[in-house]
Design a protein that fits this description.
alpha+beta; 4-stranded antiparallel sheet; 16 helices; 18% strand
Length: 438
């Protein structure tokens, strides 16, 4: 198709689907049937999903799994994980069971401060701008009282506002840098509403400030927006035990394992090529829980990866050490999460996931998410430093290959029996299936 479509958003759902099927598919009827097969049979639930975004045509399924036996701060949790990658839930579950007999996970929320900024251009005397801000700062708080009233009742609100001079980076560039506490809400809408009022107050107050020249009064607000980089919204997760307690089937020599594990982490601390994959494994666990609980995994990803680069070089999020005969593995990450607002009160499976976690506060959810990330990282590093990553991963991936070739029940039994004792690879499975069918 070489022509743009007009008025697409005004078409009904059926009309959108018919147009797409007829424009882009050689078998329109099959395309339409496929889309409708993924509709929820409950019209009310389907309507709810249709209204989450614009131009909805169907639902895109991702499996929701459960990793049980997570002992976190002395309490067991079953963690919901929404993810399509094979072996992630299995690895998390295995790690949870491993550490449940070795003291479990310890998690601590260090801070919950969130950030928003008003970016603006000012041409004039910087000393006068600083004086103006000092005299006007209280007004920013009073002018947002109608927005912050309910949040303040819950113990949150605006923590502070500072004026930042960024002219060394960009001519005439300044910002109002505000910090917030949003309690159990992720707080994006609250923060952005406050920032937009800050911007309005800034321009109005500047336009009548008698020490400013006419040029100085003409402050140009570029944008007002929260930041997904929250280096002061930090949670720590860790595990530790005596080195000899690490011993198990695949760890016959616990000291050798611990030393090799620490070296693997140290490599990720100094080598960015390894650090990216290392941290991706952590995000397998984090994103899966963030998605299952209706939070914004893109925001979490961006903030965490920025944090991994905070010292000027991309590095490992996790750390490990051996000290006085004790192995310790830990991680501190920024997490801005919410358990009220947004999808948390709308999506039925999000509500299910939060109830399964016993309706956590935002701080409690931060701890669960961090633990899931650390568990996933431990599982990956344990495999890498013992049996290798592919053994477990490819056994889990075997199902995907079998499904890809639409194996029947008899073939499935023979395939699984064969690969109990043979290395799983895509080519090996394909060859075996082809030989079965000859």
């Amino acid at each position: 198709m070489n022509n743009a479509v007009t008025g697409f958003s005004k078409l009904s759902k059926e009309e959108k689907i018919n147009w797409i099927a007829n424009q882009y598919f050689s078998t329109p009827t099959e395309a339409i049937t496929l889309l409708k097969n993924y509709w929820n049979s409950d019209e009310k639930i389907q309507k709810l999903h249709d209204e989450f975004i614009e131009n909805t045509i169907t639902n895109f399924y991702i499996p929701l799994g459960v990793a049980p036996n997570f002992l976190i701060n002395g309490k067991y949790s079953a963690i919901p994980m929404a993810i399509e990658e094979s072996s992630v839930v299995a690895a998390a579950s295995k790690t949870a069971k491993f550490w449940s007999t070795r003291g479990g996970f310890k998690a601590t929320v260090i801070n919950t401060e969130k950030i928003g900024q008003v970016h603006f251009m000012y041409s004039g005397n910087v000393s006068k701008l600083n004086l103006f801000f000092a005299q006007t700062k209280a007004t920013f708080f009073t002018e947002t009282e109608s927005i912050t009233k309910n949040m303040q009742k819950r113990g949150g609100g605006i923590l502070d506002i500072v004026l930042n001079d960024k002219t060394d980076l960009l001519p005439n560039y300044f910002q109002l840098h505000a910090t917030f506490e949003t309690i159990d809400s992720m707080g994006a809408n609250f923060i952005n509403s406050c920032l937009e009022q800050f911007a309005k107050t800034l321009k109005e107050e500047a336009s009548t400030y008698e020490l400013f020249t006419e040029t100085e009064k003409d402050i140009q607000v570029v944008m007002s927006i929260l930041s997904n980089y929250v280096p002061n919204c930090i949670v720590r997760a860790e595990v530790s035990c005596l080195i000899e307690d690490l011993k198990e089937k695949h760890i016959p020599n616990p000291l050798e394992f611990a030393e090799k594990f620490v070296q693997a982490v140290q490599i990720a601390e100094v080598e960015p090529y390894r650090a990216v994959t290392h941290n991706k494994g952590i995000m397998n666990g984090i994103d899966a829980v963030v998605l299952a609980t209706g939070n914004d995994f893109r925001a979490v990803e961006a903030g965490i990866h920025a944090y991994a680069s905070r010292n000027g070089k991309y590095s490992s999020l996790s750390h490990a050490k051996i000290e006085n005969g004790i192995f310790t593995f830990w991680m501190e990450i920024p997490l801005a999460l919410g358990t009220i607002g947004g999808l948390t009160s709308l999506h039925p499976l999000v509500k299910f996931s939060l109830e399964m976690l016993e309706k956590p506060s935002a701080k409690e959810l931060m701890q669960v998410v961090a633990v899931a990330g650390l568990a996933q990282n431990f599982a990956a590093l344990r495999s890498l430093t013992t049996t290798g990553i592919q053994e477990g991963h490819m056994k889990m991936h075997l199902n995907n290959i079998i499904n890809q070739f639409e194996a029947n029940d008899e073939e499935r039994v023979l395939i699984r029996k064969h690969f109990k004792h043979h290395v799983v690879s895509h080519s090996a499975v394909v060859d075996f299936i082809e030989n079965l069918r000859k």
